[in-house]
Design a protein that fits this description.
heterodimer, A: 366 residues, alpha+beta, Rossmann fold, OB fold (Dihydrolipoamide Acetyltransferase, E2P), six-stranded mixed beta sheet, 8 helices, B: 738 residues, two-stranded antiparallel sheet, 69% helix, globular
Chain lengths: 366, 738
């Protein structure tokens, strides 16, 4: 069963589709260029229509790139059909064969490989056991719950020992609790088998919790590649910052940059900021990005932005304060609210932050 | 995909093959012409040796030349000892003499005669045009001396002209084959070099070849022939078709189509409304009875109408003593066509009525509209697209109908039978038949187009996926009674027609002698050959049509390839074309090299497959649209190539559509008439044609027996297929819920 892990490489891959009338080209994926390291789990994250599923389908072989090359390990697979690639895909709708029993579904790939039926039986039973469905072999897929169907799909993909596992929003049809369980399960199996995996999702929590690295996409472009914490803490654009988490943006003018600190003009006040996206420079009009948990509430005049608490939402382990400021309503998250001073609705407050917890981004909405 | 390397590869392969192809063509062609020349030389030599000594026998001897060299002509030159020259005589064929008179100034002829003087045979190097039976044909000319017994002097000479048409036929065949091989090779090489998935490429190529040869080519040939008269381009056939005498036939077809379509649609709507929109009880029974005419042979109903209402009919003559009315003509034909075609309207309209969510009617009633207002302003407008397409469908079918008019048209002239008469009758004019069928194509294709692109687009019905269980009763009890009265009357009439056929099996001589007899059943052993060949051909075509339809559906729904739209259109074309035209086009196209198929069973099977493919294709496409593509992708991902995916995933999943298109093809093949009548042969006879000829000869007992047999076979197979499909309800359900 043991197999050497392989990398997946996309070299300048572009995919164009014809639009509905068959006239103009629609660019679904624009010049995607990245490497998934052996044994790594990388997530393609983005809103619907951003090209993440198309990218995955090109790796699986269901779509042919208009341009560029795809390599699995050192082999160029760009022109190979899906059945000639060492990949296994888990589909959003599972793609179980409705006319076959659970056993036959899982055994399908092995039968195609002309493996003796005794061994097929042994291996299918082993893998059904691995996903906790040992006694379900005779059932029709339609007689299983969503989570069970999901596991059958997983068993069916893994039994052919693929080098690359491709997951196309596999958890989106499950309820919240089951989703969390399966997430852990998938990660565990992927790590224990050392399979290289590409995971497509539009759910940022899923992306954060599963991935070694996240690739954020929008309109066919890759916007940022990085580890989950890097993507969250150090987004390079307003789009990435807003897509992977809640964020407030304040317009600023960038002044000087010395000793690793940028000084900016925020509504007439000077503030110090430790981080900035690579594309901002002195004199730019930019925005200051702050996560709700990086902000704190202080007495009027003590912080950087004055405002008035409009509403408090109590969540148990935290409290969300919605503060009306000259820049619009700002969400401030107060963790462990019992140990902190809480300002009541209607009270005047000031929002403060420390320089290393905020980031300057270019003003562009993208 | 189009890398420089592949393009070079392809071009090299193409060049090598084309060179080989051209070389083979030329060497075959050359060696054949050398062979023909030698053979002709030898035969001329042999022929000359058999010359009679007696001059008076020369004419008889010359006329025998065509038995030695096929279709050759000869004339005799006598040696004139005074002028030391050969003089032409009147002995021999006129054709040869005309040629001689036309060419005698030609020095070659003089030279040839001179060599005859020196006892040498000679073949003239160039080819001459001779006029045989009013047609100009190319011919080779031989001169040979007739040597006297002493062996050193010529008593005369013969000129023999040998038409080269058989040789040029061969050359033409060779050329077609060479070009065909070249095109096939290029296409295959193209698929191998430039496609990522050659199997799909080959399947697409195969489908294109099938529709190209068996749809596009025959239609093209039919069009071409319709513009050709006596070997040259002319509009004569079209002028003839547009002459008043045939416009009458077109008018007859249209009148028949309009009246049948209108009455059928009204009937279909009444019954559909009763079944789908009221609390009426025996819905199952009604549906079954109403669909019976669809699967029964086309003139079974005509037959029983003749038995009941014909000149010697049971009802018209025996019961009512009518003598002046005739069932033959527009009225009777409309009656029979309505009975056999209203099920189409019924099925179409009930499909639409079923889809209308009853809650919209509830909403209307709730807003205090009366039931009549609700029906008028809600239900009826929502059904209009269905009603229109039902009308178009019946109209098309009525125009294309051939079997019923053949038996019942009387004085009414309709195009489908006129076309048939044109081809088979005294005129024996294939081109004219084709033109008349094309005339029929105009209204049917426009109805088809309107139905497909306009009516279907106006459809208001939306599939919500939540069928409402409650049904609002829109009719009052008296209205419902009237509707069900009409329905039962119609169905009772249908039942009576079928019972008449059964009764006809046991009556000695219908109309004259109603004594019971088993004698008619001898039709079964008499027609045993046609029964077996009919069933055999239908059994062969059903799976072929089914498989091709499903493969094509998979390619069209799931794959991307250039020319997809064209392929779809070509595959759907036979649906809109009257069977008469297809039959005539097939006779025109497949009666010459390299595809001589007329007279074989193959052409009948091909005809069934091509004609029933559109319905199977539609079934398959609908079925595939309901299947999540990721099921197939999962299979491919697990290592299955395209054929394996088709065999293990697609075919089992579309099994209901597959089986129903097979059973449809089978039923249609068993009951075919219009195209088949041109294609049958002594060896491959069809039961329906047998029934037709019995009916035409007024041997109604025998016809009834064969009709009954046909109905029993069709019903049996139909029931079997239904069971097979029902077996599969589970799969069907899981597919649609996934």
């Amino acid at each position: 069963m043991e197999k050497k892990s392989v990398s997946v490489t996309l070299e300048n891959v572009t995919k164009k589709f014809k639009d509905v009338k068959g006239k103009a080209d629609v660019i679904a994926v624009n010049n995607a260029d990245f490497v998934v390291e052996p044994g790594e789990l990388v997530t393609l994250l983005g809103p619907s229509g951003c090209g993440k599923t198309t990218t995955l389908r090109m790796v699986a072989g269901f779509e042919l790139p208009t341009d560029g090359k795809i390599l699995i390990g050192d082999t160029d697979v760009t022109m190979l059909p899906p059945n000639k690639r060492d990949t296994a895909t888990m589909f959003q709708s599972y793609g179980l064969f409705p006319h076959m029993s659970v056993f036959d579904n899982v055994a399908y790939g092995l039968k195609l490989r002309k493996i003796p039926s005794e061994e097929i039986k042994k291996r299918v039973n082993e893998s059904l056991e691995l996903v906790g469905l040992a006694t379900y072999g005779d059932r029709a897929p339609s007689k299983l719950s969503g989570g069970q169907q999901q596991r059958v799909a997983l068993a069916r993909s893994l039994i052919v020992t693929p080098s690359v596992l491709l997951l196309d929003e596999p958890l989106s049809n499950l309820d919240a609790l089951l989703r969390e369980q399966m997430r852990v399960e998938i990660k565990r199996i992927q790590k224990s088998l050392g399979i290289t995996a590409i995971y497509v999702t539009h759910d940022r929590v899923e992306a954060m919790s599963l991935s070694d690295r996240v690739i954020v996409m929008k309109n066919g472009f890759i916007r940022q590649i990085g580890a989950p914490d890097v993507i969250y803490e150090q987004p390079d654009s307003r789009f990435v910052a807003g897509f992977v988490g809640k964020a407030a943006f304040f317009p600023v003018e960038i002044g000087s940059h010395e000793k690793g600190l940028w000084s900016c003009n925020l509504g007439g006040k000077e503030v110090k900021v430790a981080q900035a996206a690579p594309d901002v420079k002195k004199g730019d009009s930019a925005v200051l990005m702050a996560r709700p948990e990086s902000l704190r509430l202080e007495k009027t005049g003590l912080g950087h932005i004055d405002g008035k608490v409009r509403m408090n939402v109590y969540l148990g382990n935290s409290l969300e304060s919605f503060v009306q400021t000259p820049f619009g309503e700002v969400l401030v998250q107060i963790d462990d609210p019992h140990s902190k001073k809480v300002y009541r609705e209607g009270e005047d407050v000031s929002i403060g932050f420390s320089p290393d917890r905020v980031r300057i981004l270019s003003r562009s909405e993208d | 995909m189009f890398t420089k390397k592949r393009i070079i590869q392809f071009c090299l392969a193409a060049m090598v093959f084309i060179a080989a192809d051209v070389w083979m063509y030329h060497s075959l062609n050359n060696s054949f012409s050398v062979y023909v020349e030698q053979r002709n030389n030898n035969e001329v030599g042999l022929f000359v040796q058999t010359a009679p000594e007696d001059q008076s026998d020369i004419a008889l001897w010359l006329s025998g030349v065509s038995t030695i060299i096929p279709s050759s002509q000869a004339m005799y030159f006598a040696y004139d000892e005074t002028s030391f020259d050969f003089k032409p005589t009147k002995d021999g064929s006129q054709v040869a003499e005309e040629l001689w008179l036309a060419n005698r100034q030609n020095p070659l002829f003089a030279q040839a005669l001179e060599s005859a003087y020196y006892l040498e045979s000679m073949q003239l190097p160039s080819t001459f045009q001779a006029t045989i039976d009013g047609e100009r044909v190319p011919a080779k000319i031989f001169f040979a001396p007739i040597i006297a017994e002493n062996g050193y002097e010529a008593t005369g000479a013969v000129m023999i002209l040998v038409p080269t048409s058989s040789a040029s036929d061969f050359a033409r065949l060779l050329r077609i084959l060479a070009i065909g091989a070249g095109v096939a090779f290029l296409a295959i090489a193209w698929v191998i070099t430039f496609t990522r998935d050659p199997v799909t490429g080959f399947m697409v190529l195969g489908l294109f070849i099938i529709v190209g040869i068996f749809v596009a080519f025959p239609l093209f040939e039919a069009i071409r022939l319709s513009f050709i008269r006596q070997g040259s381009f002319s509009f004569e056939a079209w002028k003839m078709a547009l002459s008043p005498s045939y416009i009458v036939a077109l008018w007859g077809s249209l009148r028949l189509g309009v009246s049948t379509a209108t009455i059928s649609t009204i009937l279909g709507f009444i019954i559909a409304f009763l079944v789908e929109r009221t609390s009426f009880k025996q819905k199952k029974l009604i549906t079954t009875l109403a669909t019976m005419p669809v699967i029964s042979p086309p003139f079974s109903l005509s037959l029983s109408v003749i038995l009941l209402f014909g000149n010697n009919g049971l009802i018209s003559k025996q019961l009512l003593q009518l003598h002046n009315t005739s069932i033959y003509g527009l009225g009777g034909l409309t009656l029979v066509q309505t009975i056999s075609m209203f099920p189409i309207a019924f099925l179409t309209i009930s499909g639409v009525l079923r889809q209308i969510d009853s809650t919209v009617e509830d909403a209307s009633l709730d807003l205090s509209a009366t039931r009549w207002q609700t029906f008028k302003s809600i239900t009826l407008p929502l059904t209009v697209p269905g009603i229109l397409s039902a009308w178009m469908l019946v109209f098309t079918n009525s125009l294309a109908d051939f079997a019923n008019p053949l038996l019942l048209s009387g004085n009414l002239r309709v195009l489908s039978t006129e076309a048939y008469m044109m081809v088979t009758g005294r005129m024996n004019d294939l081109g004219g038949g084709a033109v008349l069928s094309f005339l029929l194509l105009l209204p049917t294709v426009s109805a088809f187009m309107v139905q497909r692109f306009w009516v279907s687009r106006k459809s208001f019905v939306t599939v919500t996926g939540k069928p409402s269980t409650s049904l609002t009763e829109l009719t009052t009890t008296p209205v419902r009674r009237i509707l069900s009265g009409v329905t039962w009357a119609v169905l009772g009439f249908i039942l009576m027609l079928y019972l008449t056929i059964i009764a006809g099996c046991f009556v000695r001589n219908w109309g004259i002698d109603y004594t019971f007899t088993w004698e008619n059943w001898k039709a079964i052993p008499d027609s045993w050959d046609s029964i077996t060949s009919t069933v055999l051909l239908a059994l062969v075509s059903a799976p072929v049509a089914g498989i091709i339809a499903m493969v094509a559906a998979m390619l069209i729904v799931r794959k991307k390839f250039p020319g997809k739209r064209l392929l779809e259109v070509l595959m759907m074309t036979p649906y809109a074309i009257p069977g008469t035209l297809i039959g005539i086009a097939y006779v025109i196209a497949f009666n010459k090299q390299p595809l001589i198929l007329v007279g074989t069973g193959a052409i009948i099977v091909i005809n069934y497959v091509i004609r029933e493919l559109p319905v199977g294709l539609e079934n398959g496409i609908t079925a595939l649209h309901q299947i999540d593509p990721s099921i197939e992708e999962a299979a491919q991902d697990l290592g299955a190539d395209v054929p394996t995916v088709f065999k293990t995933i697609v075919l089992p999943l579309v099994r209901p559509a597959f089986i129903s298109s097979m059973s449809y093809t089978f039923v249609r093949a068993m009951t075919a008439v219009s195209a088949i009548i041109f294609l049958i042969s002594a060896k491959w006879y069809h039961l329906t044609i047998k029934i037709l000829s019995y009916s035409e000869n007024l041997r109604f007992g025998l016809a009834s027996v064969l009709c009954t047999i046909l109905i029993v076979i069709v019903l049996g197979v139909f029931a079997l297929m239904q069971i097979l499909v029902r077996d599969d309800k589970l799969t069907q359900k899981t597919i649609s819920t996934r």
